[in-house]
C-alpha cells in the first residue's frame, strides 16, 4: 500500500468514532414514559399561563414523542380559559446542542452545562446565556437535545417558561374528532343552509336600549346560495315619546355573508361563558340557534345566533339579551 493511501485510511479510521459521536445516544428518551404529564408555566404579574404535555407515545428509534396539550390561563389563581387539545402533537429531537466558539462570540453569549431539577425529574441541560440578560435551558442527553426541549427560559429575570413538575399517570384519552362539516362550493355553508331565505321576505326585529325602542326591518332582495350571500334593504323606525314614530333613512343594497362560527370550540372552557343549542320559534320561522351566555358578574349577556351545524346562517344574531336592552327577531313575513 502506498504511503499516501495508508495515511488516508488511517485518517478515515481515526474520524470514524467522531462520526459515530454525531449520532444521538440510543437512550436519548429513556426518561420519557407514556402517561407522564409535563407541566410548564409562565408568570406575568397576576397572570399565569400553564401548558400540560400529556405523553401518549414515545418512539425511541425515530426520536419523537407525541402528546396531548392542555393550555390554561389563570388570573390571581382563578381559571380564565382552558383549551384541551383535540389531536396529538409531536416533538422531535436529537439535534446537537454544542455551539462553536465563533458563533458564541458573535452572539455575545456563553454556553454551560448545568443540572435542572423539578419535582418528578432531573435533567442535564445546556444553558445559553446572552448579554441581553436571557437564559435558555435546553434538556440534553450527552451533547444532544432531548425531550421536552426548552425547560427554562428567563428574560431579564422574568419567567417566560419553566418546567414545574412531571407527574406519572395513565395515558391521555384522545378526543374523537367530530365529522368534518361538509361545505358546499364557495358558500362556506353546509348544503341547504339558506333554503329558509326567500326574496321578498321581511325579517322584523325589535331593538331596545334604556327604554328607547326601534323596529328594524330587513327586506330580502336577493339570495346567492352558491356564494353564501343574502342581499337586503334595511329600514328602522324609532318610537319616540307619546308613541310618535321616527323613521330613519333606508339603508339599501346591504349584504350578509356567511363564514362566522359562533359555536364554542370543543375542549374550550372560558370562565363565565357557556354555550348550548336551542330552537327559536317565531311567527313565520323556526330556527336552530346556538346560544352563548356570559355571566361575569358586572356583565351578563346572552347572544342567540341562527346556525346550521356550526356555521352561522342568515340573519345571524336573532336575539341578544343585555341589561337595559337588547335585540330580538319578532317574526318573518312574506313568501
Q: What does this 3D model show about the protein?
A:
With 335 residues, the chain is mainly beta. The protein has helices at 3-21, 101-107, and strands at 37-44, 47-59, 64-75, 78-84, 89-92, 109-118, 121-130, 134-141, 144-155, 158-167, 202-209, 212-224, 229-239, 245-247, 251-257, 268-270, 273-282, 285-295, 300-308, 311-322, 325-333. The protein has two domains: 26-167, no CATH class; 202-333, no CATH class. It starts with a helix and ends with a strand. Mean pLDDT is 89; it is low at 1-21.
Give a brief rundown of this model.
The chain is mainly β and 335 residues long. The chain folds into 2 domains: 26-167, no CATH class; 202-333, no CATH class.
Architecture blueprint of SSEs:
Elements: H1 3-21, E1 37-44, E2 47-59, E3 64-75, E4 78-84, E5 89-92, H2 101-107, E6 109-118, E7 121-130, E8 134-141, E9 144-155, E10 158-167, E11 202-209, E12 212-224, E13 229-239, E14 245-247, E15 251-257, E16 268-270, E17 273-282, E18 285-295, E19 300-308, E20 311-322, E21 325-333
Antiparallel strand pairs: 1-2, 1-10, 2-3, 3-4, 3-5, 4-16, 6-7, 7-8, 8-9, 9-10, 11-12, 11-21, 12-13, 13-14, 13-15, 17-18, 18-19, 19-20, 20-21
Provide a count of the helices: 2
**Secondary-structure element sequence?**
HEEEEEHEEEEEEEEEEEEEEEE
Total DSSP E strands: 21
Envelope shape: elongated
Distance between the ends: 100 Å
Major sheet summary line? 11 strands, antiparallel
Q: Would you identify the regions where 5 or more consecutive residues have pLDDT less than 50?
A: 1-21
Strand content: over 45%
**What's the multimeric state?**
single chain
Residues in helices, as a percent range: under 10%
Mean pLDDT: 89
The tally of structural domains comes to: 2
Structural class of the secondary structure composition? mainly beta
What is the alpha-carbon Rg in Å? 31 Å
Amino acid at each position: 500500500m502506498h504511503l499516501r493511501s495508508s495515511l488516508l485510511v488511517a485518517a478515515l479510521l481515526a474520524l470514524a468514532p467522531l462520526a459515530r459521536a454525531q449520532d444521538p445516544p440510543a437512550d436519548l428518551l429513556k426518561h420519557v414514559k407514556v402517561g407522564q404529564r409535563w407541566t410548564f408555566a409562565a408568570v406575568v404579574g397576576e397572570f399565569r399561563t400553564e401548558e400540560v404535555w400529556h405523553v401518549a407515545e414515545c418512539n425511541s428509534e425515530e426520536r419523537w414523542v407525541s402528546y396531548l396539550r392542555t393550555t390554561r390561563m389563570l388570573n390571581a389563581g382563578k381559571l380564565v380559559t382552558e383549551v384541551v387539545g383535540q389531536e396529538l402533537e409531536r416533538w422531535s429531537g436529537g439535534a446537537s446542542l454544542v455551539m462553536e466558539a465563533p458563533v458564541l462570540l458573535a452572539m455575545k453569549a456563553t454556553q454551560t452545562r448545568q443540572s435542572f431539577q423539578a419535582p418528578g425529574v432531573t435533567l442535564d441541560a445546556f444553558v445559553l446565556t446572552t448579554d441581553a440578560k436571557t437564559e435558555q435551558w435546553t434538556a440534553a442527553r450527552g451533547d444532544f437535545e432531548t425531550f421536552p426541549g426548552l425547560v427554562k427560559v428567563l428574560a431579564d429575570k422574568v419567567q417566560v417558561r419553566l418546567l414545574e413538575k412531571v407527574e406519572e399517570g395513565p395515558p391521555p384519552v384522545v378526543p374523537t374528532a367530530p365529522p368534518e362539516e361538509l361545505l358546499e362550493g364557495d358558500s362556506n355553508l353546509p348544503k341547504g343552509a339558506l333554503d329558509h331565505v326567500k326574496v321578498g321576505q321581511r325579517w322584523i326585529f325589535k331593538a331596545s336600549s334604556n327604554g328607547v325602542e326601534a323596529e328594524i326591518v330587513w327586506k330580502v332582495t336577493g339570495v346567492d346560495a352558491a356564494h353564501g350571500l343574502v342581499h337586503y334593504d334595511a329600514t328602522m323606525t324609532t318610537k319616540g315619546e307619546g308613541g310618535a314614530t321616527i323613521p330613519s333613512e333606508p339603508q339599501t343594497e346591504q349584504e350578509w355573508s356567511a363564514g362566522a362560527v359562533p359555536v364554542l370550540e370543543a375542549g374550550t372552557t372560558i370562565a363565565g361563558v357557556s354555550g348550548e343549542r336551542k330552537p327559536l320559534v317565531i311567527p313565520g320561522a323556526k330556527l336552530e340557534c346556538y346560544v352563548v351566555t356570559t355571566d361575569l358578574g358586572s356583565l351578563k349577556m346572552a347572544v342567540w345566533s341562527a346556525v346550521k351545524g356550526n356555521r352561522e346562517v342568515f340573519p345571524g344574531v336573532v336575539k341578544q339579551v343585555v341589561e337595559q336592552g337588547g335585540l330580538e327577531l319578532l317574526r318573518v313575513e312574506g313568501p
